[in-house]
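task queued by scheduler; priority normal; single chain, no ligands, no partner chains; default sampling; output format set to structure tokens
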Amino acid sequence: RTIKLGDEVNVERGVDAGRGIVAATDVPIVSLPWSVKGEGRTFVHGALSFSTGNNPVATTAPAAEVKLQEPCKFFVHTGRCPKGDACRFSHDASRAERAALQVSYVAMQSAARRRRAAAGDGDEGGNNIRRKRDRSKVFASWLVDTFGYDVLSGGSGVLDIAGGRGAVSFQLQAVHGVRSTVVDPRGAVALTKDQRRRHGDDAEMYTPTSVKACFDDALMEASVDASALVAMHPDEVTVLVVESALKMCKPFAVIPCCAFSRLFPDRLLPDGQPVATTDDLCAWIENLQSNIKRT
């Protein structure tokens, strides 16, 4: 069962990270879900009370629990966060606390991969083409098969938004001969060892052009010659990419990773429910225009 806010969990092994934080080194088991414990009430993180209608009900949670803030994953893994003070998550974890949390995250991710493999949705042996390092190859091939070389090669080529190190763009250029430009605020385009090994001395010539910037309306207007907009796991700008492509009448393809329901609470499904999952987000995007399809 997916752990949700307010759930009580049991952990067999954990690391005391101090400051009231316990980092689990195995998969927590939900002992009492909030859907049962809360009896229909809305869980409020960091509050001493909640309410049903006009009737406030005091919680019995100790102050040490309600004062905790969820750690920022960027800060935990790198010691910094691109959002800085604007980030709504905590940046207070010490080096030792971050190390303990990293152990917890890795353990949970490993357990999730094992569950997917057991369910036939992964490959613990590492031969599945959906492995992380192969995603860009699969996506690039799908783009060419779906839109065609002639379409993607038009104008100034593909615009790879939030393209990170340029893995998708590299595949488009090196394997398919399609020009592609990476737009990413980190400006982190760089060749990997695998790319250098596979393409040898030619690898450098396939390194994609990079624009170090956030994708916004101004950049969209400057990209009118792009043949298509593509984005693999572009986080918060997923919908902006779609809306920009529709405004520009450009082909597009996005692979969403997160719904970011807290950042975009106004996104609602036809039944009035909030867009809370990746599947919800895909359905919401499909409803923007009749010719948008999910594959």
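post-processing summary
- The longest strand covers residues 226-232.
- Residues 194 and 200 are 10 Å apart (CA to CA).
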